[in-house]
Amino acid sequence: MEKNLIIKVAIPSPLRKLFDYLPPLQDADLVVPGTRVKVSFGRKQLVGFVVQIAAHSDFPRHKLKRISALLDQQPLFSPTLWDLLLWCGRYYHYALGEILARALPKALRNGEPAHLATETAWRLLPQGEQIENKVLARAPKQNQVYQQLLSLHAEQPEKLLISWHELQSLGVDKRILELLSDKKLVEKVEFELKINQIQSEVHSAPILNAEQQAACQKMEARLGGFIPFLLDGITGSGKTEVYLHVVEQVVQAGRQALILLPEIGLTPQTLTRFTLRIGAAIGLLHSGLTDKERGTTWLKAKNGDISVLIGTRSAVFADFKDLGVIVVDESHDHSFKQWEGFQYHARDVAVRRAQLANIPVILGSATPALSSLHNAWQGKFNYLTLSVRATGASLPLLQLIDMRQQKAKEGLSKAVIEQVKTEVERGNQVLFFLNRRGFAPVLLCHDCGWLAECDRCQTPMTLHQQPKQLRCHHCGKQHGVYTACVECGGKQLLQIGVGTQRLEQTLQSLFPKISITRIDRDSTRKKGALEAKLNQVHQGNAQLLVGTQMLAKGHHFPNVTLVVMLDIDGALYSGDFSASEAMAQQVIQVAGRAGRAEKKGMVMIQTHHPDSVLLQTLISQGYNAVAKKILIERQQTDLPPYAHLALFTVEAVQSDSCQKFLQDARLSLQKHASEVTLLGPLPAPIEKRSGRYRWQLVLSSKQRGFLHRLLNSALDEIEALPMARKVRWSLDIDPIDLL
Ligand code: ADP
Ligand code: ZN
Ligand code: ZN
């Protein structure tokens, strides 16, 4: 390499730029894009990534530091992944160093070499199984450990290796083991961390119905290149069966598949289904694993030792040797969007990745995102539908229950109570969906109207029963329950509204002999609690289920014949553009939990707005009809997908600082002539959270290109604003709501 060249390095820091360094004195020609380097940055030594080799720097050479060390001999990322990550930096206008670092497992991020994680174990050597007493007579400590090993071995003769983990927990000292090893009595063994098992006997696939067959054929005919599919199939229509078929083809051709799921909770059941059907190595990647496990899985996928990788959001950045297809299941789900920091949307990144890798991507859903449907209807996505349940079960009947002027019992209408009685007598299960945990959402003074609010968020605190306290669901703050009004001293404090705890209590008093289980974040905090509760439901040990959105997704309860939705009106009042879409999706997804097997299902939706066009259309014509209606509204009001948005959100202790920063940012943006509409600064709909005020500035444009060009021109200046250091600010490209 020429000596005068400049190395442009991405460094994990919030600054959206590359930093210039001089090549190292030795091995300068090994410096290529995609390798890691050690550099001094401020007073620290950091691991950065070589992005470009350039001829010029804006800084004089003598001011530049030299790269301290090269960490890789060759690029760490495959070419497609590298291109994808660079694209993410440009598209999301986010610091590239952070994006690159996040894509790697922890060890690599910290500058260590890539290798498969191992576990240490010890074993007795044959000559160690029987020794004469005198050998260890003068080494009591060694003798003690040795006796321990002998008895462990005697307990389980078939277990040859005793893991270091286990020995450590027994209080064994490593140095003693090493002394025994010197005497050739024991031996240390390193073995590879086991992360998956291949099933030797796989189940055969069911015979596909006509729609499934048609979908598979269309997909399998196009495995050789980029094509986005939208698989729009009602709940239980056999979408997973279609994925399995396509993935089988891809794996048989020697290539790999990536399956993205919205949440960890769904990974075990999907893993089981894939393991039972695909006779190849399958790996899992999600936040519930240890760094070691994630690191090993990452490397195995990269080396091609894993054929199918099932993972949550961030698995979209896993590396592969030869990726052949990407599946995004429940692709409408908001969990695919990262909420903080690097705010990417894994579904959108997946589509881009498929394009770069020249492979198909399948977006599956019973309630596709409006943006996906729009793309399908415009012909940008290949649209495939599955319209009947694969098991032959019929779709549940949806019914609106008019709550106006009803004498409801703690939020339950008479009609619902009657129907629950009937189902319970027949031995069926009933699911109550209420997206509000706690006992009552509001504590109100009957005399003066004072509300118990969180002073850090200015929103009402939720009353909880176990333990009895007030809790803020925005910031987690807790407060004892007031016995009198803080404003007027009045003693009549009303508990307004129904949360899951209250509903559970009401059901218990209505049906004292029936077993009830509640599944929400409070009741499943302990490790294993959710699995235990789900098991209880599956074994029929709970006949009434009360749950939040945790229960809405993916789970399959064959005995649930009635679903009751208690409080869905919130979306009808929400000012946010995304609320009606989210509500329609939720109703259909929750309804899909009813009558999945032989028994026919029914869904009762309690509402104070039975005449709402949205609800009427949804129950009489279905999700896609609602989607069309909402899309027409969006078109008339210039909202996504008819306009493209970017959202600046600012948080600060002083409301004025937020406003000032966004005013300055707006001035910077206005300097550049553009086809972008600026809205704000305005206080955010959630005006205060955790003691900080929140303000927004929305950028909107008919064409994505205008938005990106404007941000490219103005972001440097905005980043350098004096106020930028005094507030917390973020930029969200394609925000999914404006809260
Ligand atoms: P989805 O992913 O659309 O919710 P699944 O693939 O989970 O649907 O299928 C729902 C149920 O129907 C599963 O129990 C599955 O085993 C079964 N199933 C799917 N396809 C068929 C088929 N062609 N014949 C019989 N059963 C099927
Ligand atoms: Zn009062
Ligand atoms: Zn709060």
Summarize the structure.
The protein has 739 residues and is of the alpha/beta class.
Structure description:
The structure is a single chain. By secondary structure, this protein is α/β, with parallel strands linked by helices. It is built from 21 helices and 30 strands. Helices cover 31% and strands 22% of the residues. The strands form seven sheets. The chain has a seven-stranded parallel beta sheet, with helices on both faces. Strand 3 and strand 4 (44-54) form a beta hairpin. The chain is globular, with a radius of gyration of 30 Å. The two termini are 51 Å apart. The relative contact order is 0.08.
Ligands present: adenosine-5'-diphosphate, zinc ion
User: What is the global morphology?
Assistant: globular
Distance N to C terminus = 51 Å
Averaged pLDDT: 90
Determine Rg (CA atoms, Å). 30 Å
Strand segment count: 30
The poorly predicted ranges are none
Content-based structural category: alpha/beta
Which strand order does the major sheet show? 11-12-10-13-14-9-15
Largest sheet: 7 strands, parallel
With helices defined by DSSP (H or I, 4 residues minimum), what is the helix count? Answer: 21
Helix fraction, binned, reads 25-40%
In terms of DSSP E residues, the strand content is 15-25%
